[in-house]
Design a protein that fits this description.
The protein has about 150 residues and is an alpha+beta fold. The protein has helices at about 75-80, 85-95, 135-145; strands at about 5, 15-20, 25-30, 45-50, 50-60, 65-70, 100-110, 115, 125. It is built from three helices and nine strands, in the order E-E-E-E-E-E-H-H-E-E-E-H. The chain is globular, with a radius of gyration of 15 Å.
């Protein structure tokens, strides 16, 4: 059985992101002081209400902004969300998070596993380690072959 780690554990870094409205739903805006905690343009694993999902951190076309525009069922949907269901919008709608308010983003395993939670709540995550570099390279090459 995997170890479980609490969102208030000292090894978990917590970022206070802002929930912002977009024309198609919501996004989480990462403050500039915390840009180093999220890998730009990479797909990351995100735990939302116990579900392991996927997201991609994007950069603003102008300026230095970084945000998570949506959370999806698969890595492919996170890369190309057209036609995919955005679980972030439904989570915000069902939670106490409001547009203009805060969302806590827990960095459970940097560059690999993150969690979303409402301010004031405590969440427990399954502590998992990222695959080694060799396995990541194999997975990327398989994904690239599928895209051709």
């Amino acid at each position: 059985m995997a170890d479980r780690i609490s969102s208030d554990h000292p090894s978990v870094r917590t970022i206070r992101a802002t929930c912002a409205e977009t024309t198609t739903g919501v996004r989480l805006e990462v403050p500039p002081d915390d840009h180093d905690a999220v890998p730009l343009e990479d797909v990351i694993r995100v735990v939302v209400d116990g579900d392991k999902l996927f997201a991609r951190v994007e950069r603003a076309m102008t300026g230095e902004g970084r945000w998570i525009r949506g959370v999806y069922e698969t890595p492919d949907a996170a890369r190309d969300p057209s036609g995919a269901t955005d679980r972030l919008s439904s989570w915000v709608a069902e939670s106490d998070v409001r547009v203009g308010g805060s969302v806590l983003v827990d960095v459970v395993e940097p560059d690999f596993l993150y969690g979303l939670r409402e301010p004031g709540s405590t969440v427990y995550y399954d502590a998992t380690e990222p695959p080694n570099e060799g396995l990541q390279d194999i997975a990327r090459s398989l994904e690239n072959d599928e895209d051709r």
